[in-house]
Amino acid sequence: MKTQVAIIGAGPAGLLLAQLLRQSAIDCVILEARSEEYVLSRIRAGVLEHPTVELLHSIGAGDRLAREGLPHEGVDIVFRGEKRRIDFPSLTDGKTVTVYGQQEVVKDLIALKKDFDGQILFEAENVQLHDIESDSPSVRFTRHGEDVVLTCDFIAGCDGFHGVSRQTIPQDRLKLFEKVYPFAWLGLLAEAAPAQDELIYSYHQNGFALFSMRSPEVTRLYLQCHPEENLDEWPDERVWSELHIRLESGDGFRLNEGKILRKDVTPMRSFVCETMRHGRLFLAGDSAHIVPPTGAKGLNLAAGDVKVLNDALVAFFKSGSTDLLDAYEATALKRVWAAERFSWFMTRLLHKFPDGEPFDEAIQIADLDYFTSSEAGRKTIAENYVGLPFG
Ligand code: FAD
Ligand code: DHB
């Protein structure tokens, strides 16, 4: 098999890149380790930044998003039992975010790819990258018992944090940064109508809580918990009781309860692999960086990376110029570090640190007060939340 760009991973990064390349008639093949059903059922992100929504519209993946996505003009921040709103349009020249599940984005992108050329190879096992330092790299894998070699001009490593792409780069060439947080998120999906239209981020002495949604019938909720949390210790009654306590804001808000459809634990880490390019391998999305979910940035960062990578690949295939490819790492990292900073800031602002000193907690309250009352503070949150422009 032969293609121009071999894409490893059919998550948001890989699928978006494929669609962008198609618009410039560049050939690509996506290799995905999991089955299509598995990829379609993975519940993860929910908030799409303004630039991500624009990108999805520009590649023809915006129809259902426009119909079913929930536009949000602000978020509430609760601390000390008081609710304060950050209004996006008035603080960002009219920008908003859209709540639309990651699995819906993935579903729309898979449908588009199939409509045009059908080339997503699901259940590609034992994927290995070869000759990435040469001008003709290849990918070897096994599919339905058959060994396959795919030769290509470039490889896009879009295979997430645990993928094979980053691991193929020689250890001594990797420049890594990592921070692990002493807490995690217990994520819940409930069959209950969202009790208000906008998200609530809450700092509470018992720990952080987040109220979000997926549709007019489904609420998405998160509670700060221990990194090695045992789900047996979170029966439904405890979950609802903690949510009511942590989201209390004295304004009559009362969460609607319903059947809990799913419970999962998400560890929290900040991670950056500054080596986003090695030879003809380019990393994009979670394969190169992870943010703690508090700023809702992960999927949106993946979108930013692949937009920059697409522009560089298009320039190369149209004119032979390697300038943008050579600049890819530096261009992408600028936005990556901005989002890492914001995600770290929101995580530090809103979580209860298990061994926090009284001084640090007092500073945290002063920060919460400042960033939700001063216009400069609210603007900082709004501008980052709706999304900084793509590189
Ligand atoms: P992934 O989605 O991880 O996709 C990688 C793909 O590669 C997968 O399909 C995987 O199966 C495949 N793969 C892996 N290894 C191999 C291999 N060896 N061979 C072939 N294929 C392979 N982000 C936001 O922007 N907003 C949010 O609100 C938000 N909330 C989140 C909430 C939770 C609970 C979690 C867990 C994450 C959240 N995120 C959020 C982060 C977001 O989900 C990720 O950043 C996003 O999925 C990254 O996309 P990706 O395509 O880079 O990687
Ligand atoms: C959701 C996830 C986030 O990480 C976040 O900051 C806001 C919303 C969600 O899944 O809806």
Structural summary, described in words:
With 391 residues, the protein is of the alpha+beta class. The chain contains twelve helices and 20 strands. The strands form four sheets. The protein has an eight-stranded mixed beta sheet. Strand 10 and strand 11 (146-151) form a beta hairpin. The model has no long low-confidence stretch (mean pLDDT 96). Bound molecules: flavin-adenine dinucleotide (FAD) and 3,4-dihydroxybenzoic acid. The site of 3,4-dihydroxybenzoic acid has 10 residues, from strand 15.
List the helices and strands and how they pair.
Elements: E1 5-8, H1 12-23, E2 28-31, H2 36-41, E3 47-48, H3 50-58, H4 63-68, E4 70-72, E5 74-79, E6 82-87, H5 88-91, E7 97-99, H6 102-116, E8 120-121, E9 124-130, E10 138-143, E11 146-151, E12 154-157, H7 165-168, E13 176-191, E14 199-203, E15 209-215, E16 218-225, H8 236-247, E17 259-273, E18 277-278, E19 281-283, E20 289-290, H9 298-319, H10 323-350, H11 358-373, H12 375-386
Parallel strand pairs: 1-2, 1-12, 2-8, 5-14, 12-19
Antiparallel strand pairs: 3-7, 4-7, 5-6, 9-10, 10-11, 13-16, 13-17, 14-15, 15-16, 17-20, 18-19
Bound molecules: flavin-adenine dinucleotide (FAD) and 3,4-dihydroxybenzoic acid.
Summary, kept brief:
Helices cover 37% and strands 28% of the residues.
Structural features:
alpha+beta, 6-stranded mixed beta sheet, globular, binds flavin-adenine dinucleotide, binds 3,4-dihydroxybenzoic acid
